[in-house]
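Students often ask why we bother encoding 3D structure as a string. The short answer is that it lets us treat folding as translation between two languages. Here is a chain of 274 residues written in the first language.
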Amino acid sequence: MIDWSAYLLGLGVLAAMAALAWLFSVYRRDVSIVDSLWSLMFLACLLVYIGWGDSNGPRTALVTALLALWSIRLSVYITVRNHGKPEDPRYQEIRRNNEPRFWLKSLYIVFLLQSFLAWVICLPAIAAVSGQTPPGPLDYAGVALWIVGMFFEVVGDYQLARFRRNKQSEGEVLDTGLWRYTRHPNYFGEAALWWGIYLLALSAGAWWTIFAPLLMTFLLLRVSGVALLEKDISERRPAYREYIEKTNAFFPGPPRKLAGGGNGGGNGGTANES
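And here it is in the second language, the structure alphabet:
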């Protein structure tokens, strides 16, 4: 059974983390720091719950390890990627649309909002460590799905980073490796691993937490992920239109053959900024 007081305490801790990061962003005039903090919020929420709540279930060590691996890896990757760069274009647009006093508005439309979303989406992990039922097939399936998701996210990020380091690829579209089968392998991977966490919660009896992975998937598809990144990419990179025609947006699948012939292998480029 979930200790709701400990879970609520986690919300307070995440709000405090968000407020401190916001103060730093005001000093830097760059709210992109929230991207580095995002995954750490999930880990913080879980650790607060383990420290203060009823979390002696048989899945505690497993869930903590899975969440820590994902959280720390993603935070380090984003921090290194963004080091020395200006504010992310997505946040620059949000800044322009919310002036004047964006410095103040960013506290709740960027930092506190993301801390609340992390708190909500983390609930399956909280439920999984609280459950007392013995591990079973759903747990094995959850771990397997988490591994698949982590593979897509890590390999997708690595392939994109390597592509960007190649100066000859400037203006091109990445359509090799995992990017040949989905335009956003890292987003697909993140959704998949959270569905894996949900299967652990389901095995623990918390079937009702399904809204959390659904919310994460919706955010990645319609809000902060695919939809936002591809909003104007076809205008900025004409080659991306062909990439869209031949490649699935989210779920991996074989490239589609274009009307002009060929299935579009080779060099193109991508706009995935995740």
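Translate back mentally: The mean pLDDT is 90. Keep this in mind for the problem set.
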